[in-house]
Each structure stands twice: as C-alpha cells, then as structure tokens.
C-alpha cells in the first residue's frame, strides 16, 4: 500500500472495498468487470500531472474515466492499475458568446453543456445520443452521432485541449480559433486516441447558433439498397439535413415498441417496407422550413420511397429519442455484440448484402440502423457462440475494409475490437501508431492493452 | 554523381544546369533561392517510395514541391538535397458523385479541380485564393482562405491520404468517409506538417453541393474595433456567411486601385471609414438570398456600419479577386514581410491596438486585411531593416500568443517563421513534435530545417 499512500499525498484516492463496481466497467456488451487497484479523483490538472508522473516512474497502468458510457471497453481498467475519474473535474469553465466556444472540464456531461448553451442561443452540435456521456469521453473516442452529416463529429468541433502527458507535462493545444498552421496538430492526434496518448483535462469546443425550427420526414423504402441509392441526392440537394438516418424494419419495430410510439404508418406500407429513412431539417425561418420539408418529401418519393410522412414535432422527437436508444434496445433484447463500421456511403448496399450473406452462413441474426449520410452502419449481432461470433465479426470488418471503410466510425477500438484492428489493419500503420504512442508515453502506462496489445516489459 | 545515377535508375532526374531556378524558391518575400542538387519528377507513389528509401539510406534531404506558391519557404530545398516535384503526378483520379469526394494526385491545381467539380454541380470549398496552388501544397500547409468561416480549412475537407514515409512505406489513411474512430488520425497529423513527416501522393477530398446564387454586402465601419465587434453577431445570426472579411482602408485603396475597381462609395463615407467588412452569402434559392442579403445589410447598419452596399455580381467578384491578390499587391508595393497570425476573433481589436503600438515603437508601417470570422489577421510589414523587422515580428507573435492565438493561421511556419515558433512556443510541445517527427522519419531526411532546426548529425 506504499504506492497508495504516495497517491494519497497527491489527491483523493480510493482503494480495495472503497472502489465501487462502476469504476470497473463501461457499457460494452459482455465486457468484463475489472476492479482497479486505485481510483483517484483529481480536482486539477496539476494533480493529474503528479499522478501520471508517479505512475510512469513506477510503471503502473492508468485508465481515464468520464461517465463510463463507452461501448468498446476503453474505460475498463487494469486490475493492477489506477482509474483517473474525472467526476470532480466537471465544471463548465466558460461559455464565450463572442468567440462562440465553450471551455469545459472532462467530467462535464453533454446534457449539462446543452442546458447551458441553450440559455445563450448556442449549441454544441455533436450529438452521440447518450446525453449522460462526458465531454472527456467524447474526445477520447471521437464520438459521433446523428448530426454528423451536417456538423461533423467530435474531431470537427473541438478547437483545443489541455492534456497531461505521461511525462507529467501539461500541454495546451489549439485554442479559440478554427484554423492554424503552426506545427503538428496535437489536438487532432489526441482526439480519438482512447486514453492512450494523454489525459485530457480541458477542452475548448466550437459552438453553433442554435436553430429553433426543425421538421422531420419519415420515408419507408422497399429495402436498404433503395435507401442508400436515395442518400447522395438528398445530401447533394443543398437541403443540408441535420439528420439522415436509416433504420431497418426490425429495428424500427423494436424501438417504436420499446418507446410505445405510434407513427401512423398504414399496415400495408409497413409490411412492404424493409427500411426507413429519417430526414430532419432545421431552419431559422419557419416558412422556409415548411417549404424545405415539402421539397424533401417530394424528393424522397421521387427517389423511390413508398411514401413520405411529415412527423409532428412530438412524434419526431420521440422517434429520434427511440433511435438514440437503439443500442440499449438491442442490448436489452439480448444482442451479443454491436459494430459501427463506417463505409463510403455508396457502398452501403454492397456491405449490407455481404453482411446478410455472412450472417446466413454463420446462422447469426443481424439487425441495424445507421447514419446513412455518413455511411456509418450500426448492427446488433445475435450469436451466442463466442467463436462463431468472432468469425462473423472478422468477416464483417474484412468486408468493410475491402469496400474502403474502417472498423469503427465512432465507438472506438478499445479492448472490444482490438484483435480485429490488429489483425486487419496495415501492419505498417500499426507500427507507426505504436511509434507515435511511444513518443507520447515512453513508459507505456496510458491505457495499455487498448488499441494495441500491452508491450512485454522491457521491450523498448 | 553516383547518387544521381542511382536516382536515375528510379525515375526522371534533373541535375546541375538542367535545374531551373523555379525549383529553388517559393513565393515568400525575401526568400532566398537555393538550387537543389537533384530534382526528381516521379510518376507513381512506388517511385516516390524508392526515392525516399534511397535518400534515407544515404541521409540526403528531401523537399516536396507542388506549384511553389507557398509563402513560408517550406518548398525551398537544401543545396545538397532532392526536390521531389509532383508536376507529373497531376491527375484527377476520380470525381465520385455518389460519395461526394474527389481523389487527386498532389500536382493537381485548385483551378483544375474547380473546373472538373463544376461540371457535376459540386465544389471543393477550400479557397486560398491562389488557384494555381496545388492540392499537395494545400495539404502540406493546411491552406485556408476566405471560405473557412463556413467550410473550414484544408484539414476539415480532406478525408484520406496516400502518403510515403521516409522508410519507403506507402500508407493509406482515412477514406471516403467523414468519421472514424479506429486508431490515431494519421490523416490529420500529416495535414499541415509542411513536408516533414511524409510525402503525400494522393488525397481524398470532401466535396459539397455547388450553390449557384451568391450576393455580397460591403459595409464601411469607423475602425477595425467596430468591425470586430460586429462579427460575433453576424456569425451568430444563422445567416451562415460564406465569406466574412475585413479590409483596412489602406489595403482597400491599394487593391481597388490595382484592380481598377470602382465600388461607388461616396467620398465622405470613404473618408470616415478606416475598415470594411465584406459579407458574402450563398443560397440555392435566389429569393431567399435576396431576403438574407437585406437582413444582413440591416444587421450591419444596426451594428454600427456607416452604411451597407449590396455589390452587383461583377463588382463583388472583382472585389473578392482583388482581395485574393492582397498578398501580391503588398509584395509589389514593397512589403518586407507578411504575417497571418490567428486569434480568438473577439481579441482582434486588442491585437490590432497592440500591433499599432508595436509598429509605432519601431517605425514600421503595417497594413492589412483578414478573415474576420476566423480571427485570422493578415498584415504586410514595411520595414527595411532586418533586425528591426525581426523585433516587430517577435513582438507581434508574442502579442498573438498572449491573447490565445497562434503564429500562423494558414501560411505555415516553414523556414520563414521558424525562429519565432521555436522561441515562443512551449518547449514541451516542440519536444513532443520532434519525437513525433522522429517516429515518422528516423533518418531526419524530410524537409530538415523546416519547423525545427535540422538536427546535428548523429544526435539521435
């Protein structure tokens, strides 16, 4: 307990039975609970720096934790390691209405930020759905969500960071500006690095004007191929959809059932539709919105939609909320894994055909939905046998890579998808990423086992 | 000449008098001409890889060259080095109208790309002004320009790269998708690295729907403080300007004189205005555009503009073209240096006040314009004495950093601003960047002397 006492000299520490189960897992399906040896709850970046300096000196693994809502296991600690929980670094430091930025500590949740920005007519547009998620976690996984088709993902909306290296150095990267060409972009490198390069202790976020009026069209299509074929035209129309989601018929049935939501779609339309496209538009002017949503409806029926329903505000909100809960709905229904492969969006039909063939070959059940405008497919897998499930996952990821895609669009690699990442990704890129990791974290203490296998001791 | 013969076994090589002066400089003011020992003009990434492998083995410096329109000296080679000119890798490989991306080789110019995308109703929205610039050069400097306030800079519009490392490995990063959370973002790391990490041999670019209708308001203001105060409201209005530029009175006089452009502003207005704001809007619907430009005019006069003039299409186009040429106008007028410092946009008045004081203290003349929406200030310095000029630059950059800004918004550090970068930037960040550089380029052959001082031999 010598090490614990040294930690306690720096900041608040929990050990042994003081450590609740929540510090040992995230929301991954089938993720194991690993209780860490220590939980620290720092209040300042200086405390984080001291913790990391000590951990690096002693070779003790460190895992950062925000709200623990991740689903790839990147917040699952090592049994001999430290969890740095940011629950006490949860202040919104500034809402700057002149520069249109927010400065937040990593423990701030999306909900808290949204409430504060709403007060001044601004919005942080990244919307991964789970509003209890922390901004620190969002930065670590490069969180995405439904509004990415218009506003991009976390990467496109974070302007700067304060980050602590495993060397104990506290860096400030970027700032309250959208552009710079002054050395390497460390902000972008740290975003999405899943806690393996640095611990983020502050983020400067770009805010947008909050647009008041939204309207939603729901368009049933014969199948997902027909949906995918419609997407480029919708994106190219200049209507600039805020949301452009596809939902397959089974997922639609499940999420509307769970949410007890009646969409008023006639039985014969529902029975002949295997996939839905949800298009949400926004406009600062209500009349323009009304005109645009009509245009969108006409466009969609012209593109082969069986029909196009303009959803009333309440139903639209509830449908989007239900869609946000698709992961939880799948989990509750007994899904054995989820993937969020990203593809060139025009490759969606080909990927779905490949996925169907893979599923049939391995007697696996797949249902899904996804960010159609981004080519980001979310599939829930039902296959109890771990070995078969791994085969299905490997074949799905290989198909995505063959079509020019990537393993994860927004969930991250973490522990959960690591073996596929290491197996399928170009070894030269993996080797380069490991060299970059070493440039940041020579002692290899930041989230070892995430993205890469932990290095054998003394290997570098 | 043994080395030259080995290069010639790989690809087309120029040596000695075959090497024209153009390979030895870019457009930097006062940049020296350095003729390289070798110019290679590869046709494939495989040839680039062989050249880099040989260069790394022999420790010969390598500098990439696109169109040579840079203004920070990053394309200026070493006398003992190789210039890799991408003039023969200049094909537009694909315009993909389903995924809305273009795939280009580095030697393609912005003008060529714009002509091709126009044919299919799409646009690559990054617009650094100099249309003869190459996409490879744009990627290397993270080029920006006037449309960044709406569409971001190069970084936000490049989805993937093919890049050759100094190890001879050819990597593909990213792809035809806007989001991924699958390991470190190598695309973003290479963008803006000024040829020091890898040579880019292909880029996948995000295209947007080309919006037909634009309109422009020109608003004279009493001074730049009044301009800056108006900017947040314009950005927050939801009008989503495509361009939001300020131009000081002297720069306006110079560029309109050079372009022989009459804007029809009454003398008494011109005489009482020290700064102008140019707001360009776009809309796919002409009626909406007309309504929006009226709203913008009212907004601007409400925000203190002396008046607001809706410019006819031809004048607007010529004013924007004249503004694009501001750098060349300054250069022709005898400017001794230019800077493109970026700041939080609300800090613009404070920076301008500091700049005025610095200029007066050192008897230096400053004129400028800038991307007001982005806080990106472009100043031309007139000061013949090199030492005084260096003092002025150092003080200007220090003021920008004190206000939360960065040395360069879009021009890059190159050779031209390196000494200030190394002097003023956090040493811990410089050291980390050097470690990253080493992870990519262990032999230190990629553009040594750019960003960092070249390392003494055998230092690593």
Average pLDDT rating of chain A: 94
Oligomer: homodimer
| Uncertain regions spanning at least 5 consecutive residues of chain A | none
Strand content of chain A: 15-25%
Major beta-sheet overview of chain A: 7 strands, antiparallel
What is the third-level CATH name, the topology of the largest domain in chain A? Answer: Uridine Diphospho-n-acetylenolpyruvylglucosamine Reductase, domain 3
Brief synopsis:
The structure is a homodimer of 460-residue chains. Chain A is an alpha+beta fold and 460 residues long.
Could you explain the architecture of this structure?
Two copies of one chain form a homodimer. Chain A folds into four domains: 2-85, Uridine Diphospho-n-acetylenolpyruvylglucosamine Reductase, domain 2 (2-Layer Sandwich), CATH 3.30.43.10; 92-209, 2-Layer Sandwich (Uridine Diphospho-n-acetylenolpyruvylglucosamine Reductase, domain 3), CATH 3.30.465; 213-327, Alpha-Beta Plaits; 334-413, 2-Layer Sandwich (Alpha-Beta Plaits), CATH 3.30.70. Chain A has 460 residues and is of the alpha+beta class. Chain A has helices spanning 2-8, 45-58, 110-118, 135-141, 148-151, 154-157, 186-190, 224-236, 249-258, 267-271, 286-302, 313-324, 326-332, 348-361, 386-402, 418-424, 427-440, and strands at 13-15, 38-40, 62-65, 82-85, 92-96, 101-104, 122-123, 158-164, 170-174, 199-206, 208-209, 213-221, 243-248, 275-283, 309-311, 337-339, 365-371, 376-382. The model of chain A has no long low-confidence stretch (mean pLDDT 94). Chains A and B meet through strand 9, helix 7, helix 8 and helix 17 of A and strand 9, helix 7, helix 8 and helix 17 of B.
